Amino acid sequence: MEFTPEEKKILMAIGRSEQGRNFISILENIKQKMSDIDGITDDYAAQVEGRKIFKKFCGTLIDSLQAKPKSNKPIAGSSDYD
Description:
With about 80 residues, the chain is mainly alpha-helical.
């Protein structure tokens, strides 16, 4: 899933808050529980595929919440390599 630049800004702001960090923890727990395939009884292939998709979505969302804003400042000493 791709987020727009505006959505990325919103997610980064949420992720930096106390509630956002708690939300990230909840998402990580959900993602971990989706790794458990022992409880699948019916339509195994579809259940596994659905869990893979959901885990990927959770991972993308977590990464977006934890993303650091990019800095436009030049890297110190980078002009030494010209």
